């Protein structure tokens, strides 16, 4: 992504989040690159900002970590006085930080989580710092290769298993086409009960047409 | 910032994470800053003319580093304001100003301000200023009058 400063570490990335009846499924690849060197091939791009609120990070690794840290801190302080924060609140915080610092940041973030008022919700905060609630969201450099696939495959009202397959297949396709995405697929299922992590190793990835 | 999570109802409080690379005011000194009534550099008041400050441009990092602590403090104040209300940063600023003023004339200026360090959280960290250029090791001659004047503010 061209917004990086020289020497900065790129999160490359394919990230995705899908809402379903009881919560959200979030997923990401695991590749972090500095130029063409893969600095980390097992990165965890799914970052917790609260018990049942996670964010998927794409763009500059440093920028997204800094922003996620501040939101995490902010939500901790908030929850002491006001109880559990809602997902739109967390997304709103990300949006404020990304917009007000837009000249310095290169961060595309997808916020996904569960809260009592809204159930599961997915909020996309792309590069400029806008905020969009969507039934599913894709992001990162690899997402450009799967817009068609996702639009053709997504249906309203999928259950948890179908959503997991949707995320897994989409990310696998993105990872096979995008040079800056790869490694393993990390997913998280976020519901009222909490967070369950799923790990799909590199040799178990779904395989699309490979010629 | 919103405790209600409705998009469209936002405060305008700045949440800058890091200072910008450009200095807010002019980055290099101009002759006008030190000019006398003839328009030339006033050597009597300001010392010899320093070409370096007029010609050299600053490194982009220079302003970031100079403004770093201030920016972080302001971010904390703004977050506290959003979270707890106006009273929180006002109290924090009040404590800071009390501690800065608390230096008595008996205390040499070289001693670091413990109260300020505690408020900033620096008492729990070790940074380069704790082992480099430590005030206790300084060999400067101290003119108590000059120091006092600086403290009160009648001298630069």
Automatic annotation (TrEMBL), chain A:
Gene Ontology MF annotations: threonine-type endopeptidase activity
Superkingdom classification of source: Eukaryota
Active site per UniProt: 13
Compartments reported by the entry: Cytoplasm; Nucleus
Signal peptide start-end: none
GO process terms (BP): proteolysis involved in protein catabolic process
Function: Component of the proteasome, a multicatalytic proteinase complex which is characterized by its ability to cleave peptides with Arg, Phe, Tyr, Leu, and Glu adjacent to the leaving group at neutral or slightly basic pH. The proteasome has an ATP-dependent proteolytic activity.
Protein name, UniProt field: Proteasome subunit beta
Gene: PRE3
UniProtKB/TrEMBL annotation, chain B:
Keywords: Chaperone
InterPro entries: Ump1
The family this protein is said to belong to: Belongs to the POMP/UMP1 family.
Protein name: Proteasome maturation factor UMP1
């Amino acid at each position: 992504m061209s917004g990086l400063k020289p020497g900065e570490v790129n999160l490359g990335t394919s990230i995705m989040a899908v809402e379903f009846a009881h919560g959200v499924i979030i997923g990401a690849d695991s590749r972090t690159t500095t130029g063409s060197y893969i600095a980390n091939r097992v990165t965890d791009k799914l970052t917790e900002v609260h018990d049942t609120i996670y964010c998927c990070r794409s763009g500059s690794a440093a920028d997204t970590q800094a922003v996620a840290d501040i939101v995490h801190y902010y939500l901790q302080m908030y929850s002491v006085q006001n109880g559990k924060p809602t997902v739109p609140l967390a997304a709103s915080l990300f949006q404020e930080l990304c917009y007000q610092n837009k000249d310095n940041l290169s961060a595309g973030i997808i916020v996904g989580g569960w809260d009592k008022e809204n159930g599961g919700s997915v909020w996309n905060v792309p590069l400029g710092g806008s905020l969009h609630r969507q039934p599913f969201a894709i992001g990162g450099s690899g997402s450009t290769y799967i817009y068609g696939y996702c639009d053709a495959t997504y249906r309203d009202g999928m259950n948890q298993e179908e959503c997991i397959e949707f995320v897994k297949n989409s990310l696998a396709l993105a990872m096979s086409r995008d040079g800056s995405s790869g490694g393993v697929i990390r997913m998280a299922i976020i519901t009222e009960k909490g967070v369950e992590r799923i790990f799909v190793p590199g040799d178990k990835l779904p395989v699309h047409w490979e010629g | 910032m919103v405790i209600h999570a409705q998009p469209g109802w936002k405060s305008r409080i700045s949440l800058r994470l890091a200072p910008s690379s450009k200095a807010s005011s002019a980055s290099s000194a101009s002759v006008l800053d030190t000019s006398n009534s003839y328009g030339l550099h006033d050597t009597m008041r300001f010392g010899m003319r320093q070409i370096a400050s007029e010609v050299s441009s600053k490194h982009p990092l220079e302003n970031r580093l100079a403004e770093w602590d201030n920016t972080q403090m302001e971010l904390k104040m703004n977050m506290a304001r959003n979270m707890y209300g106006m009273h929180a940063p006002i109290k924090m600023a009040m404590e800071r100003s009390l501690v800065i003023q608390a230096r008595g004339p008996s205390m040499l200026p070289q001693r670091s301000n413990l109260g300020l360090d505690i408020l900033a959280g620096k008492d729990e960290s070790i940074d380069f200023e704790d082992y480099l250029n430590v005030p206790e090791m300084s060999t400067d001659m101290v003119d108590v009058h000059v120091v006092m004047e600086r403290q009160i503010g009648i001298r630069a």
